[in-house]
Write a structure and sequence with these properties.
- Strands 1-2-3 form a 3-stranded antiparallel sheet, with no helix packed on it. It has a 3-stranded parallel sheet with strand order 4-5-6.
- With 146 residues, the chain is of the alpha/beta class.
- The termini are far apart.
């Protein structure tokens, strides 16, 4: 007489295998590419851009929009690390970078303007734009460091 197989261990093995597959499958998902930005618009091909507050929410270009931002002060990070830090911020889900513009850095003496190296805000803003990040600028002589 043939021995009857017990289906409980086989069912358990299939269930555990399925759970492990579901747990590790996202590891093999492709990562988002930060090199191509199809949503980027050229200033030459002007499309009406709009930002408004209506019905208790933000609207950007006619779509509901939520600002998910964090601070990255360009003058406190070496310029060669800006892209790395911005990509890390974007990977965390941020869509907006906030930064102070310390005017005493850009005009250390009356009439002497500095916009290179750590003070190259134009390069920082262009990099944010290239990466698809919005920027909220806080200009002024006062920088809250506390």
């Amino acid at each position: 007489m043939a021995k009857k197989l017990n289906s409980k261990p086989t069912l358990f093995f299939i269930l555990v295998s399925f759970m492990l597959l579901c747990a590790f499958l996202p590891v093999f998902a492709p990562l988002p590419s930060f090199n191509s930005h199809p949503h980027r618009r050229s200033h030459r091909n002007t499309v009406e851009r709009k930002f408004e507050i209506a019905n208790d929410r933000f609207w950007k270009d006619g779509e509901p929009f939520q600002i998910i931002g964090g601070d990255l002060h360009y003058f406190r990070v070496h310029p060669e690390y800006w892209e790395d830090r911005l990509l890390k911020a974007k990977a965390l889900g941020l869509n907006t970078i906030q930064t102070y513009v310390p005017w005493n850095l850009h005009e250390p003496a009356p009439g002497k303007l500095v916009f290179e190296g750590f003070a190259n805000i134009e390069a920082f803003l262009n990099l944010c734009h290239k990466l698809g990040l919005l920027v909220m600028i806080r200009p002024g002589p006062y920088v809250c460091t506390g």
